[in-house]
Amino acid sequence: MLNRSVAPDSKPIQPLTLIHPEPIKYGNGLQAFIFQSPHQELIKFEFVFNNIFGAEEFPLYNTAMAAMLKEGTGSLSSAEIAEKVDFYGAYLMPEYSFDHTSLTVYTMHKYVDRVLPIVSDILNHSQFPQRELDTFVRNSKQSLQISLQKNDFVGRRLFYENVFGENRYGMVPTLESYDKIGRGDLLHLFQRQIRPNNCTLFVAGNVDQQVLEHIRNYFDEQWCGISEIADNDLVSLNEKSGTTIVEQKADALQSALRMGQLTVNRSDADFPAVQFVNTLLGGFFGSRLMRNIREDKGYTYSIGSAVASLKHTGFFTLASEVGVDVTKATLLEIEKEFEALRQERTKTEEIDLVRRYMQGVMLGSLESIFSHVDKFKAVYFSNMDLSYYNYYADVIANISASQVQDIAIRYFDFEKLVKVVVGKVG
Question: Does residue 234 register a pLDDT over 70?
Answer without folding.
Answer: no
